[in-house]
Specification:
mainly alpha; 1 helix; rod-shaped
Length: 38
C-alpha cells in the first residue's frame, strides 16, 4: 500500500514535469511560428 501510494506520487510528479515541458515547448514553437509568419 505504501509502495503503491509512493508510485502514484512519482507518476504525478513526472506528469507535472511532462506537462510543464510540453507547455514550454508549445509556447516556444508558437513564438517561433508567429515570428516567421508575421
Amino acid at each position: 500500500m505504501l509502495l503503491n501510494s509512493h508510485s502514484v506520487a512519482v507518476v504525478l510528479h513526472l506528469k507535472h514535469h511532462f506537462v510543464g515541458l510540453v507547455y514550454r515547448t508549445s509556447s516556444f514553437l508558437f513564438v517561433v511560428y508567429t515570428n516567421y509568419v508575421v
